[in-house]
């Protein structure tokens, strides 16, 4: 906002002079200024203090170059005046409220919309001009007229290059981008837009960035209301630059509101009377259509048939836009005619323009056959150039419209070079009607995320006498459950329980007299109104139960999980370790830790289920020290007994690590569980046993966390950071103590082998446990005696104390892929 009032400091009094009165006092012969003075000294250098000059807007680039050239021709001597008036500038921020401006920089920014960076650039340009004029005048006095003329031309050329403006992606130049001629309360928004347009970082290298697009709309949208009062003051170059930035859709630039911005910008340009180029007209019509003005956009497209539709530069884009808009609008006849106009023209035809027509025709039952004919026409035109992506799009179109037969025919066309016609046949040919072929199709549909289409294929092929494989349906159920959507999870449950019913019916045929649990009460729904009821004939497998069990456990649906296991026994499918782990985890989450432990013993002892590493990880997590925030001493004592028993069973069980994740999680969980229960002796024994059986070596980071007594300190609060610092100090102190013992025993203490470093980590861990137990002063022999008693209870006496090589090799849990320390 330009300053509304000026106060002249006359020593004893001051008064306000409005801008209109100040303009009336200005002499008509006053010379226009080139740049604002950069200091009070420059203002005092004015010819006469009694004739204050009117503040003018920064001239246009061409006008600026003309005035600079005239100044160079004249080459005047700069004049100065020792005296002058001190002028105080004020800004009216609200009616009746004035604020004194701090300095000349703020005055220039408020009055002209220039920030300090641009103001400095203008001042530097003024200084360069004056210095160059002095140099040229001295050269002319010394007789170097020719050399002065040559330098003057070179300076003019440099000046033009300096103000050539910004460059776009296609090397187009936009000149000096600036909007002038606005004043009033909202002039600040125009100033902000000018500041943005003048930044060197905007469209750097000629390519807009995502930040450029976002900030361009931010400043332009804020200034639109002010600009609308005088659209004619916006230069053509600014419109072109704004269009280039806001319509940019280059690689790596996110512009989600591109069409909305183009629609608004096109309306503003139309209001300003700025003619749109042909390419801009097409983009504006498309933006109008996308923004919801479909009828108006199509009408504008029709009117452009003579101009846009006949020029070679816009012929293809014009008719392609018409095909897309008419197809989306439901005018399939006009869309088809527009596509035929393209395909029959002399321009290189692109048969894929028929895809919008195919999609529009397939959306209606009455025109599905026409959609198939358009697909065949496109396939003929493309020939060998047709791609898998083209087939996928056609297949998705027909699956969406429930035309599964046409979709299968398109998939057959993609898979076989020869023509196999399956339409209208009661039974599919053997080359198509088999598990392998249908399985490939289902796998592809699931892979691209078309789960609804995959389900339609399952229903279709079953109606043709083909029973899908359980592996294929389990894959569909798993994909539905992983999506997390409530609708997909409901569909997954319905399909899974339908497979379970098929399994129970199969078992029931062999045991007609056995009373079965009714699984129908467990399903969520039998099918929504929009989907037909589907009775699956594919029988459930253990994987089907596992998928449901994992889902029920993660959703904490304990009652459903219990019923699922009741049905599992009726289905005569042996429970796996995975199913057992899910049930143990569910009981633990439900607060029934004792029931979880009893279930583990029952299923491993009576049903001979072999546990794995995940089983013991689940058991240790079921301890109260890992479930409850508030520690209970009585429960902690029970946890010690249970944890030692779990560890004994883990050592005796025949299993091996199957993944790096469990290899990292299980030892850590065991140590923290015993530490939280304050079983320090058990922690030392477990660490020694896991060193032999797991090749486990505690890293320094784990030792620091054990020193703090917390399993996870990832949240960087002040309390946690203090605990980490304290834990680090403790570990460093214990490491220093260990190395002093090595030096006393004759070790140099400078370089350590890898084995010595591993021994150091284990020794520090044991010293840490003794420190926490308050037994750091207890003798070594007494400590070892106490550890032997615990080792017998944990079932690792022969491993830890006797070091029986045969038993160690027998109970080692490392698989072939698990090597090296954790």
UniProtKB/TrEMBL annotation:
Region (Disordered) residue ranges read 36-58, 71-90
Q: Which InterPro entries match?
A: PPR_P_subfamily, PPR_rpt, TPR-like_helical_dom_sf
In terms of superkingdom, the source organism counts as Eukaryota
Q: Name one Pfam family in it.
A: PPR_2
Q: Where are the PPR repeats?
A: 576-611
Family per similarity comment: Belongs to the PPR family. P subfamily.
| UniProt name for this protein | Pentatricopeptide repeat-containing protein
């Amino acid at each position: 906002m330009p300053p509304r009032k000026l106060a002249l400091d006359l020593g004893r009094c001051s008064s306000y002079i409005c801008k209109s009165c100040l303009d009336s006092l200005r002499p008509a012969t006053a010379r226009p200024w080139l740049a604002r003075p950069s200091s009070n000294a420059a203002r005092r250098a004015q010819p006469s203090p009694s004739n204050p000059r009117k503040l003018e807007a920064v001239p246009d680039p061409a006008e600026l170059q003309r005035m600079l050239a005239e100044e160079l021709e004249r080459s005047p001597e700069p004049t100065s005046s020792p005296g002058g008036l001190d002028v105080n500038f004020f800004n009216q921020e609200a009616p009746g409220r004035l604020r004194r401006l701090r300095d000349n920089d703020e005055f220039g920014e408020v009055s002209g919309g220039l920030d300090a960076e641009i103001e400095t650039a203008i001042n530097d340009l003024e200084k360069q001009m004056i210095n160059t004029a002095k140099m040229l005048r001295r050269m002319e006095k010394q007789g170097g007229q020719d050399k002065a003329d040559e330098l003057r031309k070179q300076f003019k050329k440099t000046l033009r290059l300096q103000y050539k403006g910004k460059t776009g992606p296609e090397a187009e130049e936009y000149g000096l981008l600036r909007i002038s001629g606005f004043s009033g309360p909202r002039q600040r928004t125009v100033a902000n837009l000018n500041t943005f347009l003048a930044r060197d970082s905007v469209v750097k290298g000629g390519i807009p960035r995502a930040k450029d697009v976002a900030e361009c709309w931010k400043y332009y949208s804020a200034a639109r209301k002010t600009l609308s009062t005088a659209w004619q003051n916006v230069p053509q170059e600014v419109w072109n630059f704004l269009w280039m930035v806001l319509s940019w859709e280059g690689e790596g630039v996110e512009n989600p509101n591109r069409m909305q911005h183009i629609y608004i910008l096109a309306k503003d340009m139309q209001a300003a009377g700025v003619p749109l180029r042909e390419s801009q007209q097409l983009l504006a019509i498309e933006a109008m259509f996308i923004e919801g003005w479909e009828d108006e956009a199509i009408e504008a497209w029709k009117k452009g048939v003579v101009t846009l539709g006949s020029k070679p530069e816009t012929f293809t884009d014009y008719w392609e836009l018409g095909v897309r808009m008419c197809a989306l609008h439901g005018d399939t006849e006009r869309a088809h005619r527009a596509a035929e106009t393209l395909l029959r023209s002399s321009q290189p035809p692109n048969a894929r323009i028929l895809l919008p027509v195919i999609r529009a025709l397939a959306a209606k039952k009455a025109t599905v056959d026409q959609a198939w004919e358009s697909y065949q026409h496109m396939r003929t035109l493309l020939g060998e150039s047709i791609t898998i992506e083209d087939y996928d799009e056609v297949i998705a179109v027909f699956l969406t419209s429930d035309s599964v037969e046409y979709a299968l025919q398109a998939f057959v066309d993609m898979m076989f070079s020869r023509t196999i016609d399956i339409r209208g046949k009661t039974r599919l040919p053997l080359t198509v009607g088999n598990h392998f072929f249908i399985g490939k199709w289902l796998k592809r549909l699931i892979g691209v995320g078309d789960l609804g289409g995959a389900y339609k294929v399952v229903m279709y092929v079953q109606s043709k006498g083909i029973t899908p494989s359980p592996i294929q349906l389990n894959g569909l159920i798993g994909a539905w459950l992983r999506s997390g959507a409530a609708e997909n999870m409901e569909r997954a449950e319905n399909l899974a329980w339908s497979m379970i019913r098929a399994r129970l019916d199969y078992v029931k045929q062999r045991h007609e007299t056995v009373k079965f649990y009714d699984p129908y009460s467990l399903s969520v729904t039998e099918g929504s109104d929009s989907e037909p009821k589907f009775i699956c004939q594919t029988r459930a497998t253990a994987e089907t139960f596992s998928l449901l069990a994992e889902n029920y456990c993660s959703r904490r649906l304990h009652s459903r999980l219990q019923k699922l296991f009741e049905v599992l026994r009726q289905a005569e499918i042996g429970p796996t370790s995975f199913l057992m782990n899910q049930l143990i985890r569910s009981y633990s989450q439900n607060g029934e830790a004792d029931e979880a432990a009893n279930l583990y013993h029952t299923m491993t002892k009576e049903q001979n289920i072999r546990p794995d590493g995940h089983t013991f990880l689940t058991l240790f997590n079921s301890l109260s020290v890992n479930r409850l925030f508030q520690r209970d001493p009585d429960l902690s004592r029970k946890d010690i007994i249970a944890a030692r028993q779990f560890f004994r069973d883990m050592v005796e069980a025949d299993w091996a690590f199957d993944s790096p994740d469990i290899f990292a999680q299980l030892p850590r969980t065991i140590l923290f569980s015993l530490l939280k229960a304050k079983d320090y002796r058990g922690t030392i024994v477990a660490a020694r046993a896991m060193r032999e059986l797991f090749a486990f070596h505690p890293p320094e980071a784990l030792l620091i966390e054990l020193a703090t007594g917390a399993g996870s300190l990832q949240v960087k609060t002040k309390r946690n950071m203090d605990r980490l610092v304290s834990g680090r100090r403790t570990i460093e102190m214990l490491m220093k103590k260990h190395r002093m013992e090595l030096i006393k025993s004759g070790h140099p203490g400078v370089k350590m082998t890898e084995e010595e470093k591993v021994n150091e980590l284990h020794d520090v861990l044991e010293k840490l446990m003794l420190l926490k137990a308050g037994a750091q002063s207890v003798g070594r022999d007494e400590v070892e005696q106490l550890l032997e008693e615990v080792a017998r209870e944990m079932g690792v006496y022969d491993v830890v104390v006797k070091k029986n090589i045969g038993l160690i090799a027998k109970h080692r849990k490392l698989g072939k892929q698990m090597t090296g320390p954790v």
